[in-house]
Design a protein that fits this description.
- The chain is of the alpha/beta class.
- The protein has two domains: 3-136, Rossmann fold (3-Layer(aba) Sandwich), CATH 3.40.50.2300; 158-260, LytTr DNA-binding domain (OB fold (Dihydrolipoamide Acetyltransferase, E2P), Beta Barrel).
- The chain has helices at residues 3-6, 25-38, 54-61, 77-82, 119-153, 200-207, 247-255, and strands at residues 16-21, 42-48, 65-69, 71-72, 75-76, 90-95, 111-114, 157-162, 165-170, 174-180, 183-188, 193-196, 212-216, 219-222, 226-230, 234-237, 242-244.
- The strands form five sheets. It has a five-stranded parallel sheet with strand order 2-1-3-6-7, with helices on both faces.
- Strand 11 and strand 12 form a beta hairpin.
């Protein structure tokens, strides 16, 4: 086996470097105790109930994960996040209420815990974050350049980061990709479905040169696996999956078949 290809199997995360931010001291202590008791993969590298020093702690400690109270005195989580470019960390929001406005500025899959924090919910959120961070570490260790090299050596396959590691799938077997909450489901002609933490935009850039087309903001399809186009704006694919075609993409989609007209 190629040593580069097998290296991702040896990647482990001993601990997730974590910062706790909550303006209520009692809540902070309670959160720390719960994490220490139920989340052994968490390494608490810092904590504060003084929101004003949050930015300084983030810059100095460089955490991989932040537990962030939604309602901070004289400062909101929006103030903190908008001050940090590219946000190189994961976030678990902690809130007393079911705040919906978080989604207005935070993209991707949101992890959110309601106070008082349920032990099981805490473990589920931490495990979800752990998987995301592990996939990021795999990407960093191998590097996108190495992934591309592996893809070339695999002869028309792409490398798909998943929760278990990296899977190599033949491009011509991919029927379509569907974006779901920042993740991507990949449907194969073999009947296998993969779930990747990469966005639909990532796979669009990767697969367009192989004859794939984004027919909807959430659907990237392999043009070779189309069975039928329905006038109401849907495609039937080889796996009998019905995919919508956005109104603003229908003209370009139909134009791509002009050369097939008699």
């Amino acid at each position: 086996m190629d040593p580069t290809e097998s290296s991702f199997n040896k990647i482990t995360i001993m601990k997730v470097r974590t910062l706790l931010i909550d303006n209520e001291y009692k809540s902070l202590v309670n959160l720390r105790h719960k994490i220490e008791q139920f989340c052994p993969i968490i390494d608490i590298i810092g904590e504060t109930h003084y929101p004003k020093i949050s930015l300084e702690l983030i810059e100095v400690l460089k955490p991989e994960l932040i537990f962030l109270d939604v309602a901070l005195k004289n400062m909101t989580q929006f103030n903190i996040l908008s001050s940090i470019e590219n946000q190189p960390f994961e976030i678990i929001y902690v809130t007393t209420f079911d705040h919906h406005y978080i989604e207005e500025f935070e993209t991707g899959t949101i992890e959110k815990l309601l106070k008082p924090i349920n032990n099981r919910d805490l473990q589920l959120s931490v495990n979800e974050i752990f998987q995301r961070i592990k996939e990021k570490k795999i990407d960093r260790v191998l590097g996108q350049h190495e992934l591309n090299d592996l893809t070339k050596r695999k002869s028309n396959r792409i490398a798909v980061p998943t929760q278990d590691g990296i899977e190599f799938i033949k491009i011509d077997e991919i029927i379509h990709c569907q974006g779901v909450d920042g993740y991507t489901q990949i449907f194969s002609a073999t009947g296998k479905m993969l779930l990747s933490s990469r966005s639909i935009g990532h796979f669009t850039k990767l697969l367009q040169k192989y004859g794939f087309q984004l027919v909807h903001k959430s659907h990237l399809i392999n043009m070779d696996h189309i069975c039928k186009y329905l006038n109401e704006g849907y495609l039937i694919l080889n796996n009998d999956y019905k995919v919508p075609v956005s109104r603003n993409k229908r003209i370009n989609f139909l134009n791509s078949f002009k050369h097939l007209s008699p």
